[in-house]
Amino acid sequence: MEAVHRALQRNLDSGEELGASLVVDLNGERVVDLWGGFRDPARAVAWDEHTITTVWSTTKTVTSLAALILVDRGELDVYAPVARYWPEFAANGKQDIQIRHLLSHTSGCPASSSRPRSKTSTTRRGPRPGWLRKPPGGSRAPRPATTCSPSGT
């Protein structure tokens, strides 16, 4: 695990990371427990083993792994429309979005799970039909686009 330690140290030394930590448990045994850098942009407060931080995108790996297991078992076709498995999803112009589009963030769905508020109201407007940013299969969305709901958002 020395290579993991060196990689973290390189990132911290380069300034690419302000601070970071990594814990890896393998079969119930802690094999990596590293931290370093700083907790603040002024680099005055050291990052330690008790530093609390926001964790992003942890479900992407688990979701992808679960999907791949289902593909391996023949229970999921990534080229099938999402509506094959979730019929209501096809509402509001989303009938052509395939499983692979959700997994690769190329569905064209907006990243937000709801429409923006109007400038004159504090309530959210209802969904509008066909509310896709772009056709499915295009370039990656700038944020996870797997929040498309049956109502169109």
Mean pLDDT: 80
Q: Please summarize the sheet with the most strands.
A: 2 strands, antiparallel
How many E strands?
2
State the domain count. Answer: 2
Strand content: 5-15%
Low-confidence stretches are 117-130, 141-153
Termini separation: 44 Å
Strand arrangement in the largest pleated sheet: 1-2
Structural class category: alpha+beta
Number of helices: 3
**Helical content, roughly?**
10-25%
**Compute the gyration radius: what is it?**
21 Å
Topology:
Layout (H helix, E strand, L loop, with lengths): L1 H13 L4 E8 L2 E9 L20 H15 L26 H5 L50
Antiparallel strand pairs: 1-2
Highlighted features:
153 residues, alpha+beta, two-stranded antiparallel ribbon, 3 helices, elongated, disordered C terminus
Please give a quick description of this structure.
This protein is an alpha+beta fold and 153 residues long.
Question: What does the model show?
Answer:
This protein has 153 residues and is of the alpha+beta class. The protein is 22% helix and 11% strand. The protein is built from 3 helices and 2 strands. The chain has helices spanning 2-14, 58-72, 99-103, and strands spanning 19-26, 29-37. Residues 117-130 and 141-153 have low confidence and may be disordered.
